[in-house]
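Example record

The entry below shows one chain as it appears in the dataset: sequence first, then structure tokens.
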Amino acid sequence: MRILLVEDNQRLNAALQARLEKDGYAVDAVLDGAQGLAYAEAVSYDVIILDIMLPKKDGLLICHELREQRINTPVLMLTARDTVNDRVLGLDSGADDYLVKPFDFNELRARLRALLRRNGEEKTGLLTIGDLSVDPATHFVERAGHSIELTSKEFALLEYFVRHPNRVITREMIEQHVWGTDFKGASNIIESYIYRLRRKIDGPYEPKLFETIREVGYRIRKPELEG
């Protein structure tokens, strides 16, 4: 999943980016509101983490302008202010959730998962495709009752596919949503990850869930649509 982080405190910005990337998210991190708005307008994100007090353009105005442009990416507002009026202003600007500083990183994780669930079909948090189960909270993966060990990047790749079943995912989409704008890997790194993931998820099991769409990309299909 790809996240835009707009936070002007450099230390907090760097710490959040590092921890989110460790969790497997692709993160674009910027330090002012003008940059934040430009990124949000140019790129399709899964979630935006947006501080309210920002140089050049504040978070409330950014959120309002995005909603006016019909950019409906879920927005999690960060603020040091905790009055009822502040929360109302944030939500009325178009934000989906509101987190007061200082906060525990585990709460931020939980808020992000809730926003991702809100946009998906699964409301319980557990993602399923046939006999494949994926838990974003614990990174636990199971197929046909057998647990499957994945690296953080393999998990991020699998989660992206499972959140978009039956949709053809191109190499460029994978670069953007799993690796991010700073991707500088070898030309075949995505293919290598897909190969390893398919061996683990599909290798010993039937039916096969992953498909290669020649010269286009890949998709993971729900078994009930086969035939």
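Notes for this example: Residues 5 and 11 are 13 Å apart (CA to CA). The mean pLDDT is 87.
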